[in-house]
Amino acid sequence: MVVRDEVRKMKSVAPLVAALSNEKRCEALKLVAEALQDKKDEIFAENRKDLDYAAENGVAEAIVKRLKFDEGKLRDVVAGIEQLITLEDPIGRITLNRELDEDLILKRITCPIGVIGIIFEARPDALVQISTLCIRSGNCPVLKGGKETTNTNRILFSIIYNAVLEAGFPEGCMLAVEQHNEIDELLKCEGLVDLLIPRGSNAFVRYIMDNTHIPVMGHADGICHIYVDEWADFETAIKIILDAKLQYTAACNAVETLLINRNQLIKDNFIPLLVSALAENGIKLRGTAEVTELVDKYYERESQSDTEEIYAPDQVPEKLKYETIDDSEFKEYLAPVISAKFVGSVEEAADFINQHGSHHTDCIITSSDVNAGRFMQLVDSAGVYRNCSTRFADGFRYGFGAEVGISTSKIHARGPVGLDGLVTYKYMLSGRGQTVGEYANGEKSFHFKDID
Amino acid sequence: MVVRDEVRKMKSVAPLVAALSNEKRCEALKLVAEALQDKKDEIFAENRKDLDYAAENGVAEAIVKRLKFDEGKLRDVVAGIEQLITLEDPIGRITLNRELDEDLILKRITCPIGVIGIIFEARPDALVQISTLCIRSGNCPVLKGGKETTNTNRILFSIIYNAVLEAGFPEGCMLAVEQHNEIDELLKCEGLVDLLIPRGSNAFVRYIMDNTHIPVMGHADGICHIYVDEWADFETAIKIILDAKLQYTAACNAVETLLINRNQLIKDNFIPLLVSALAENGIKLRGTAEVTELVDKYYERESQSDTEEIYAPDQVPEKLKYETIDDSEFKEYLAPVISAKFVGSVEEAADFINQHGSHHTDCIITSSDVNAGRFMQLVDSAGVYRNCSTRFADGFRYGFGAEVGISTSKIHARGPVGLDGLVTYKYMLSGRGQTVGEYANGEKSFHFKDID
Hints:
homodimer
């Protein structure tokens, strides 16, 4: 397959897809949901091939879990499709309606972006989610999934594509790319592909960003911070830190760095709790010297046997692994490891996050409205949180039905990207023969009246 | 100056600028307007130096007109600032307010983009417009103007910068770059500069797009089309074509290509009118063979002396310059030259525009609502017009007060970019210690309730 030729055809049918009615797009989604259920045995059989291949090649259990497409996953994607159908149509919304002058009406109307290339990890449910988000929003997707799910992807794509054709979508409105080298061909389709959404490892996303002139939406790093303010509730802080670090360590919205207020009360009372919680949960601490020296001190205190006041017996942090590093060595771990440093204020925390973070999701633990407000104002990230886990940064948890990815760029869409991020707009201007010359020479003048 | 160091400082003050209140930003704009008026003699004196230099170096009259900053231009920019103050604050708007669950509130709030690099042509009024749009929207601009207005730019920048400092903006919130080689330094400030807006020649914008990993907003080409439908009113068509071609030939929104319905009535009645109008106004026609053969025929008819019926005596197109070209040779002229070809339908017109245009602004001349609707639906451009000049594609004419540029990308902002295009958003999530684990294990569940 010559990717460019196929994408060129897609580009020419994209306006036809954009012109399909809301009813037609919803009907297509219904047919997709039905077809997936009708052909589930075939899908599971193809998925079996991928699972067998993975088993033969000793693929890790955690990854195999993601490759699997079973009754549960089918139920989830069908429920997702049903939710998508109920969401308000993102297309054709009038976001500006202005009379520039008599009989000269300007409207700004939302419309699909067009051709979107999406490169995603080996998760068959992702293929269904991404395709159906594109169908709902009138976009034409070029899909490249992880090679570990080639067989499952192939049948899922074929089922979805045939269902949308049956609904009256034009041929060539969806495209599957299977070969890894075809990604490079896709990256060169500037002017034909309107947007690329790469999902996957840091290095992979960086490679895409560095090797194309097509706009890219996504995120490379996910270095999320939690700042424990001087007005933090300690139990809340511990609970959130453990969830944000451990609930899914490989996620981009897992916390990687703790910033802790240098207040003496916190040093005296929060640090022992933290050290205990980290040890108990097998989380390694990499702190600056100021942090680890304090941890050393608690270990000394412990040996002076006044620990009972601080630690319950089953919490004694005997097994805490920790080491001293410079804060320039803080990084994305995607593992049960966490960086920590002390800061003097909300402002210092925000400044550190803005300089060292990845503008993904950062959280303050505080009971002070003033400090929370200041933090959420100053931190320049897609998500700024107060007293809840960074792991909430996700399209489904935001109520978007699904997401095509998470963006750390500030351009176009930021944070979890659902239907809203898959639309753009066009300006429509309707007149009765007006010329700019008439306005330039003063014969006519604009009156700019917004119409409700 | 090491651009990167200065931009790094700007990046660290950008959140402080973003946190300034609407009142503070409007107060700064008032001080800017006052200072510009107070120091007008100094500004005019500096502008005199630029004009003298241009005169000594034989710069063309048309360009000198743009360099000039006089009482009229001062009045216009001050009026623009006053209009900016009256516009609704683009910052801090809540565009989503959703209860994900009890005491877990998600808000999407508009905020400034941050650090924006703007490289613009030699027009001192552009410096004022761009700076004040950035001040209004809480952004920090890095400004590089055309070298022909170095002296005027320097004093305008100094006046504006001092006024915003007086209003309480932080030092380093605005930056002027004077040397052309510093543009290349700026292009390398990925991660510090959030957005680049280049204005200028096709080749220059293309150079910027090809040499940076920073997101770029703008347009290289401006190949605008007018499609004369079979249901066109001929007089309206001629009037609009002449305005769109001639009102300002060097503008990106000037028309470059005519698509004409192949209907016999049009061939018989519109072509003679068009040929006459082009000849009379000194516009050269570059048409496909089908067009020029028809024009040849009219010249023959003319020699057969039945021209009176078609042309008024002063309209005889004796001086029409025309040549036959292939439609692959159609291009952006920025001069009194126009391409033309016949098409069979609205669909064929839209398809040609989508393939050969630059997605800027394209217009249909028709009295048919059906054909207009189809055209505006299928044409994939920032502006789709009906019965009015393509020259209306401009931030001021859309009632945006001013524009930082026109975007032909579909990502982020499309068409003329005013305040709305200079903002992004962040998600703020406030909870009471909620963890994702609680939702994953079924202990809690989302209820997604939008709050008015």
